[in-house]
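To assess whether the prediction recovers the assembly geometry, we first specified each molecular entity separately, as shown.
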Amino acid sequence: MNAGGASGFARKAALALGFLFLYGPIAILAIMSFNASRLVTVWGGFST
Amino acid sequence: MTSQRRRSRLSWSQRIALAAPYAWLVLFFFVPMALIVKISLSKPATARPPYEPVFDLSEGLAATLDKLSTLGLEAYRGLASDALYLDSYLSSLAIAAIATAVTLVVAYPFALAMARAPSRVRPILIGFAIAPFWTSFLIRVYAWIALLKDEGLINHALLALRLIEGPLPMFATSGAVIVGIVYSYLPFMLLPLYSAIERQDATLREAAADLGATPWQVFSRVTLPLSREGVVAGSLLVFIPAVGEFVIPDLLGGSDTLMIGRTLWNDFFANRDWPTASAAAITLLALLIGPLVLYERLRLRDAEEAR
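The predicted structure of the complete assembly is given in tokenized form:
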């Protein structure tokens, strides 16, 4: 049908927002696991 | 008549296959449930376990009957007279209702977009939507602590952008609990919605559009009404477990976030008042029987229609 145009954009935006909501917190947790700072949420350089 | 004839035609292997799940239910649901009812009728005692034994057949029949006569609804009367429980129930129902509504609003466009994606990519999208729920539930709730705390990432970002002057108090509030529930229960809403939207006949939408409906009218008068069953099923699947939720309010809620799961936990483990806690659990079950029956009826009707 009308897969292109406005509805196609809205569909992609809805998918992007949905997956951002689902994966954002997990990604942040994964990134923060490399944080060298002693504070959980303050970036202090990489640690391994 | 016909059902009777059908029942008599069950073979032995069929009967055993039917009996197995019922035996499982009786053993692991009804027996524990009966124990909870039993404890709720007893009185707290300084003992191990911390309630007066309900009956002890070794003491003889007369003593047993004597014991049984001391059972009563005191724990339930205690529930009714203590405002803490009423407040806990009301705030649990309110938090669960708001969280269910937010989950629906978040999940609907997401499910719609997945159902309207090319059929080739739909299974992949569904897989990616479910995949986060294979990671630990606790880890996912902890991630929200890192995001919502006063010195958390959202406050850091907003402070860095100079949009706010001090950190927003987001962590340890009812709002944080609602966000946690929405995030944790999203797939329970997503999947029924997706299947309800996906099985709709595309020609109905085309016909509506051909007859002059705007895209919004097609949505509000065709897609949305036809997905009603998905909306109801998803809402109940989120609402029912969310009312009794314990982990999310304990990790994300503040000390003033009352939820019945937490009140129960306190009674069981901190106050060691098992009868009151059991009575509260039974009352919660009674409260949720309405929505549970509604869900079962819808499911049965669905199954009949599919036949």
